[in-house]
Amino acid sequence: MSFTVWKNCTLATMDSNLSQAYGLIADAAIVASNGTIVWLGAQQDMPQQWGDLNKDAAINAAIDCAGRLITPGFIDCHTHLVYAGDRAAEFEARLNGASYEEISRAGGGINSTVRATREATPETLKAQSAVRLKALLSEGVTTVEIKSGYGLALEHEQKTLVAARELGREFPVDVMTTFLGAHAIPPEYGGRADDYVTAVIDMLIELNRNGLVDSVDAFCERIGFTSAQVRRVFENAKALGLPVKLHAEQLSDSAGTELACEFNALSCDHLEWLSDAGISAMQKSGTVAVLLPAAFYYLRETKLPPIEALRLAKVPIAISTDCNPGSSPCTSVLLVLNMASTLFRLTPEEAVVGVTRNAAMALGLNDRGVLAIGKKADFAIWNLQQPAQLVYALGANPLHSVVKNGVLVRQASDHV
Ligand code: NIG
Ligand code: FE
User: Fold this and answer.
1) 243: which of 46, 281, 351, 386 lies 20 to 30 Å off by Cα?
2) DSSP bridge partners of 246
3) 51: pLDDT confidence band, cut at 50, 70 and 90?
4) Which of 82, 324, 336 to mutate to test the pocket of ligand 1 (most atoms within 8 A of CB)?
């Protein structure tokens, strides 16, 4: 059997079964075989079957990490990464006084990206999106969720999800696709939202038949869809056996969370206006709260999500970039880790849990997000000594290298 040993490292396993903060193991080693972690622990306890660390020749491959920190590969669990164009002009309009909602109601906002995305060829769409994906990968991301929702017609939603799947084949990252047909009402359906929801359901059935949908999302909001409309979408998702998640309580309390939890949603996302009733619904259904501090920052939102109440209710909290052209043109998980702590007062440990263990849960993936025997050998190696350093700095990229499915896929720099 072929295996690889990474020795002389500090492991932030994020395994909640271990008593140390971050599931930390110092002076550690980790062994992978066939893409899976087969052993990890204090290096001095490593069983002989993985070789004699003093005689490297006995080991298939032994990598000396020179004391570096290893975390699970980051999981960015909420992105709209595939789109064309940008919204710098809208950003400028907002700085001149217009609000996000006003711009949206005037046909800008999401619908301006819909125009650009519809006009883009599949090649252009993929090339523009690959730039953003590469930025995420340069910071240790090994799994990313990508939503559709800027096509809003079968041909263009298909083009988006195909681009997402192809990016997952072309880069060393697992892509989970989410159908977000109910993101905005496209201009050709102006004033006919219910008819558009019928079209969304038809698209869902077709795209799922083409193997392009891992889960289903919607935007439940005054400028999005009503809970009755979201219910129709979710009933169809359920009939197809697809998990759901929801953009909920971002700009107002629309009680979308309660609805999503009726369908055992994997996650409810944003949640600035989440009510107590919403929190207890999440607690009962085991739904993950995905917080998006970069969107909060970018829209200059002042209402904080109810973080302390979520903590008290033991609702798992994940965090994500929400990479999108309007409310969060952000491709940095490291920046979002810092924002989660500075803006939302998450502890650095909660923040790192939010892009690893809880982000995996938000995607319904139980094979990753922690370093433990039997989990996928996806990990990031950092030029750092302790995990709080991941959260602490702004604008630094301390990534050393990335291992995906047990194989070295990225080597950054060797500086410490
Ligand atoms: O997650 N809230 C809806 N969707 C995106 C924003 C999309 C856009 O403005 O293009 C979000 O914030
Ligand atoms: Fe979003």
Assistant:
1) 351
2) 268
3) confident
4) 324
Distance CA 398, CA 139 (A): 8
143 vs 375: CA distance, rounded Å: 14
Amino acid at 48: Q
The finding on whether 23 has its CB within 6 A of some atom of ligand 1 is no
- In this predicted structure, the answer to whether residue 61 has a pLDDT above a threshold of 90 is no
pLDDT at 414: 53
- Is residue 324 in contact with ligand 1, taking CB distance under 6 Å? yes
Best residue for ligand 1 mutational test, from 90, 113, 160, 219 (most atoms within 8 Å of Cβ): 219
Do residues 136 and 335 touch, judged by C-beta distance below 8 A? no
Arithmetic mean of pLDDT, 134-145:
98
How many residues can be counted in the chain?
416
SS (HEC) of 203-246:
HHHHHHHCCCCCEEEEEECCCCECHHHHHHHHHHHHHCCCCEEE
Is the shortest distance between the CB of 109 and ligand 1 below 6 Å? yes
